[in-house]
Design goal:
The protein has 8 helices and no strands. By secondary structure, it is mainly alpha-helical. Helix 4 packs antiparallel against helix 5. The longest helix has about 40 residues. The N and C termini lie far apart (about 45 Å).
C-alpha cells in the first residue's frame, strides 16, 4: 500500500510540474496558459527582481521607457516558462536604449512641465489653481499609461515609432484594460510617494499589469468562443 501511495504522490507531483511547465511533459496533461505564473511566490520574487533591475536602468529618468520595455519582455518570458535569464533583459536594454531616448526625453520634459504646473497651482501663484492641478494630474496619468502601453508594444524588431503609434489602437480595443494599467500607474505613484524604495515593487507590479491585461482579454475571448 505504501508503494502504491508513493507512486500516486509521485504521479500527482509530476502532473503539477507538467502543468506548470517546470517539469517534463506527462501524457494527457497540457501546460497551463501561463505556466511560469503558477508558483505565486516565485512570480512575486521575479516581479521584485525585475523591478530592481528596471529601477537601475531608469535612474537616468529618460531611460525609463526602455527599462519598462525590457522588463515587460522579461516577465512575458517568465510567465510563459520560457528562457528568462537576466542577461536577456540587459540585451534588450542595449538593443533599444539609444532609440528609446526619442520617447524618454519628450516624456521627461512633459512630466517636468506638468509637475511644475501642479506645484505652482498648489502654491496659489496661478489663477484657477485647482483646475490646473486637476489637469496636471490627469496629464501625468495619461502620460504614464501611454509610456507603459508603448513599452508593452516595443520589441527590438518593431522599434519605438511603431510601438507608440500602436497605443491608441490598444486603448480602443480594451478600454477596461487601459483602466487597469492606469490603476497600476497610480499605485506605483502612491507607494513611491509614501516610501521611495517602494518604487521597486511598484514598477514591478505595473510591468506585471501590462503583461497580465492582454492575457485577461485572451481568456475572455476563449470563454466566449
Amino acid at each position: 500500500m505504501s508503494v502504491i501511495s508513493g507512486e500516486r504522490r509521485a504521479q500527482r507531483a509530476a502532473t503539477r510540474e507538467a502543468r506548470s511547465g517546470a517539469g517534463p511533459t506527462v501524457a494527457g496533461v497540457e501546460p497551463g496558459a501561463n505556466p511560469g505564473a503558477t508558483a505565486k511566490f516565485g512570480l512575486f520574487g521575479e516581479v521584485l527582481t525585475i523591478g530592481l533591475m528596471m529601477t537601475i536602468v531608469a535612474l537616468g529618468v529618460v531611460t525609463l521607457p526602455i527599462a519598462l520595455a525590457a522588463g515587460i519582455r522579461h516577465l512575458r518570458r517568465f510567465v510563459a516558462a520560457e528562457d528568462s535569464r537576466s542577461s536577456l533583459f540587459w540585451d534588450d536594454v542595449r538593443a533599444g536604449i539609444l532609440r528609446s531616448l526619442a520617447v524618454g526625453v519628450p516624456a521627461a520634459l512633459i512630466a517636468a512641465v506638468l509637475t511644475v504646473d501642479i506645484v505652482l497651482a498648489g502654491s496659489g501663484a496661478l489663477p484657477g489653481g485647482e483646475a490646473i492641478a486637476v489637469i496636471g494630474w490627469a496629464g501625468l496619468l495619461v502620460l504614464a499609461v501611454t509610456v507603459l502601453l508603448a513599452a508593452g508594444e516595443w520589441s527590438p524588431s518593431r522599434g519605438w515609432v511603431v510601438a507608440v503609434r500602436a497605443v491608441p489602437g490598444v486603448v480602443r480595443a480594451d478600454v477596461a484594460g487601459a483602466a487597469y494599467i492606469a490603476a497600476a500607474a497610480i499605485f506605483t505613484g502612491v507607494v513611491t510617494w509614501a516610501l521611495a524604495p517602494l518604487f521597486i515593487a511598484g514598477i514591478g507590479c505595473a510591468t506585471l499589469a501590462v503583461v497580465a491585461v492582454p492575457a485577461r482579454r485572451r481568456r475572455g475571448d476563449n470563454h466566449a468562443g
